[in-house]
Specification:
The structure is a single chain. This protein is 32% helix and 26% strand. By secondary structure, the protein is α+β, with helices and mostly antiparallel strands. The strands form 2 sheets. Strands 1-10-9-6-7 form a 5-stranded antiparallel β-sheet, covered by helices on one side. A 5-stranded antiparallel β-sheet has the order 2-3-4-5-8, with helices on one face. Helix 1 packs across helix 2 and helix 7 packs across helix 8.
Length: 262
């Protein structure tokens, strides 16, 4: 398996709260989430949480256990790492979305929890796009209030807090946070490696090229990754953000070819 990656902070001077990493047969992408004021709950910060969770999960993926079980273990590990110093149950505490792929015995296994994407390019037919739509669905009812409030204002952050009160509860949406049982809510599956030509993991800052700005569709995005690599996708997203005066987001992509190779 061959991989090319890019990860770009939203803007200069901004800490990148995404994480991605790979080993020969598996890969992880983490998109950390937090809001101003979270320091009162966790002194480490969102980037620390994302890196700790991603690194811990990546180190577990060689074990012969299901992806949800391994994610649950990684969530429990990182929660234990700061339970004694931080209020891990506080609504302001860091959380993250997760996307994972693992190849073995002729299969590609995958897991997606929260608003990240896995895209599998197939020799015959359109790409298979795997996502967890629950956060996007819940967010729609909050969108008018978010758009009406000046970004960064007290009202804007109040609406965000109300939105995030729907995390990890029935009828809401699920992310990695302090409860390992969230891993059981992930979207999972597997497919034969035969016929797969490439795969990609994307944070929702990178998936904007398709799902927000409509610069291309998923077949076009995978073709662009094949011809120009992940950095070009992020460059086009940044151009669109500037053109539409949309606040940038951390954007991360891991792109894989040679999926059947060791």
């Amino acid at each position: 398996m061959r991989v090319s990656m890019t990860s770009a902070a939203a803007r200069a001077g901004h800490v990148n709260e995404d994480f991605t990493g790979a080993v020969p047969t598996a890969a992880v992408l983490i998109d950390g989430a937090g809001i101003p004021g979270s320091e009162s709950a966790c002194r480490h910060g969102v980037a620390w949480y994302a890196c700790r969770l991603g690194g811990g999960l990546l180190g577990l993926l060689s074990r012969d256990r299901s992806l949800p079980a391994l994610l649950a273990e990684a969530i429990e590990q990182v929660t234990g790492d700061h339970r004694d110093t931080c209020d891990v149950a506080d609504p302001l505490a860091p959380s993250a979305t997760v996307a994972v792929l693992r190849v073995s015995d002729g299969l590609l296994e995958y897991l997606v929890l929260g608003a990240s994407f896995l895209v599998l390019d197939r020799a015959d037919g359109a790409p298979l796009v795997v996502s967890d739509p629950r956060e996007v669905t819940i967010s729609r009812s909050f969108l008018p209030a978010l758009l009406a409030a000046p970004e960064g204002s007290a009202e804007y952050h109040r609406v965000l807090r109300d939105l995030r009160a729907n995390r990890n509860r029935p009828g809401g949406f699920w992310v990695a946070r302090n409860d390992p049982r969230a891993a059981d809510e992930a979207v999972t599956g597997s497919c034969p490696l035969r016929g797969l030509t490439a795969a990609a993991l994307l944070s929702n800052g990178a998936s904007r090229i398709v799902d927000r700005f409509g610069l291309t569709d998923w077949p076009g995005a995978m073709a662009l990754l094949a011809s120009n690599g992940p950095a070009e996708v992020v460059r086009r997203v940044r151009q669109a953000e500037a053109r539409h005066a949309v606040a940038a987001d951390d954007a991360t992509i891991a792109y894989f070819t040679g999926l059947g190779e060791s």
